[in-house]
Every structure is written in structure tokens, then in C-alpha cells.
Amino acid sequence: MADFLQDQAAGLRRLFNPQQLKVVSFASGTPGVGKTSVVANVAVALARQGREVLVVDENTGAAHMGAFFGIHPEGDLLQVLNRKRALEQVMFCPLPGVSVLPAGMAARQLGRLSAPQQQAMLEGVNALEKPVDVILVDTSPEHDHGFSPWGLAAGEAVMVVSGSGASITDSYALIKKVSLAFARRHFRILANRVRSPEEGRTIFANLKKVAAQRGIAQLEYGGAVPLDTHLKQLGPLCQPIVATLPDNEAAIALKNFATALLAWPRAGFDNGGVEQFFQQVLHCCHTSPAVLRA
Predict the structure, then answer these.
(1) pLDDT for 162-197, tens place per residue?
(2) Which end of the chain lies in a sparser environment, N or C, as judged by fewer CB atoms within 10 Å?
């Protein structure tokens, strides 16, 4: 009954407050900064605000989104491209309002898709029954130029950074690489697992200063999520902290970030809905990067 009432309330909010699609990619310069946990919690926070969220998961191995929710995905978008399964057959819904599309195998072949495979992708999207208000892309670092077409097609790019020196250095390197290769000039910085709000601000200020001095990109502060032992305790339980401990400081920070995300300006192609986003992904598959400067 609770799920039914939640779905009904979400439907009424969409009816009287129509929302256009928003697409946000999340990246990190190095593994181990909690990027997938951030994406999962933001997705759940948005769903609890009445949004239908689609998470495109580029990760494979132990770091995939299914592992966070304790779910073993039964397929990948690649099977849809090869017409072996329908799109909704490879997606899974860990919680009401959140759908996850495993795309790790497909992401590594996006630059080599045949015309029939591209058509199969668009047909799969057109067959989706649920509306989508927000798409979150959990990017994988395993791409030659830092971002796959999924990340490049997103209207917003969030760099998840921790306080470690390696994370800060590698995040700047990734921002530089993507900026120079694909002319993406705007990134938002989310400081994760920090000891204080001041540490988060300092991390952002240092990154912004270097990027501005070298003319790489414009960086904007996305907020800070405090380090919390509950996150490690909840990990084995496969539970998002925004749902299980909503009054926790980390949960509040993640919920505030999700709320702020909804107010960010949309890219032009976000207005065309899910199908146009997928078309933009296919367009990015054939975008040649500029020559990278050292």
C-alpha cells in the first residue's frame, strides 16, 4: 500500500508540475572515492522526491551498481543492441522510482556500433513504458579519453573527488583530458568523504585555481559529503543511507545535492526527452577528439 501511495503521489506531481528530462554524468579520476555510492544515493533521494530515475551503469566487475543494491544483473545493454533481449528485460529496479540499465559491456563498443545496432538501441528506448525524469550516468574510467559517449552526451558532468592527493591530482588530469579532447568546459565538483565542510571547500578551491590558471575549464562547487562510518556499515547490507538513516549528516548532504541538481540549467538536447538523449549518445560515438596537449 505504501508503494502504491508513493507511486500515485509521484504521478500527481508529474501531472501538475511537468518536468523536462535532466541528464547528469558522474566521474572520478581514481577508484575508491565512493562515486557509485553517491550515484545510488542521489538516485534514491530523487525518487523519494517523486522523480523517475534511470541510472546508466557503465561499470563492470565488483564496482557495478547492482553490487551496491545486492542485485546480480541478468543482462547488459549489449544484448539489446544485438536484439537478444528487450531493454526492459536487462534493466532492474532496486527501489521504487529507480531503474538501472547495466551498460558496461555496451559502453566499450559504442564507437563500433553498426546501423542495425543503433536502430535497436533507439527502438528499445521507444518501447520503455515508464516515464523518465532524470538520467544519471555512472561512468567508468576505462575509456581512452576519459569519458565514454554516455558521459559526453550528458548535460552536466560531476567530478566526485575525495581528500586524498591521488584523487585530487587524477581528477584534475581527467578534467584536463576531457576538456582538451572534447571541449567540455564546465564541471561540477562534489567533495566526498571529507572530514569537514571546510575541507570540501578547500579541495574545490585548489582545483578551481589550477584549472583557471591553465585555462582548462570552469569548475563549480557542487557540495561536500562528510565521511561517515555508517556508510561502511551499510555497504554489506546493500542499503542507501538516504533511505535507512535520512537524518544522518551524509544523508542530508546527499539529499541536498539531489535537490540542487534538479535546479541546474538543462542542456538543449535534454528538452527532447530520453530518445533524443540516446540519439546524442550515438552522435558522440562518432565525435573525434581533438589532439591532446601535454
Answers:
(1) 999 999 999 999 999 999 888 888 999 999 999 999
(2) C
pTM: 0.89
Per CATH, which fold does 21-285 belong to? Rossmann fold (3.40.50)
Q: Which amino acid is residue 90, in one-letter code?
A: V
| Packed helices 197-213 and 165-182: angle between N→C axes, nearest 10 degrees | 40
- CA angle 42-43-45, nearest 5°? 60
- Classify strands 92-95 and 98-102 as parallel, antiparallel or unpaired: antiparallel
